[in-house]
Amino acid sequence: MRSFDLAPFYRSTVGFDQIADLMDRVLTQDVGQQTYPPYNIEKTDEDSWRISIAVAGFSGDDLSVEVKDKALVVSARKADEGSQRSYLHRGIATRAFERRFHLADHVRVTGASHVDGMLHIDLEREIPEALKPRRIAIAKQGVTEKDVVDAKAVN
Q: Which of these, 111, 113, 119, lies nearest to 40 by C-alpha position?
């Protein structure tokens, strides 16, 4: 695999460290990305999503959902079964896994549920009031609010 050096971009950009880190992360990941367990990401509203992960064979106690350093980490460890089972065919994989999803700024996990072999994780973007767009009133030059009040009092 090719290796790209992004050091020149670090010297010429200010405040875009997260974008450069994201590019580093994407470029350094192996091409043979894990495919187990399969998952869907669904957009449920303008600022909310749902991640659905197929976790057949795992109970709620075997699953772990954590948020660490802007990353959602879903992992599972199958509890050791006391009795040894003899399978003629074993098609349901219950091997341990860890799946990571990198979260954007201001995205938080609002809940998780385990229903019918599917783990559903709900996410929502909550933009702080200071970052929301707001309209700024434009004052007219030479006209002050005092002049407007005086004009209303005269009329």
A: 119
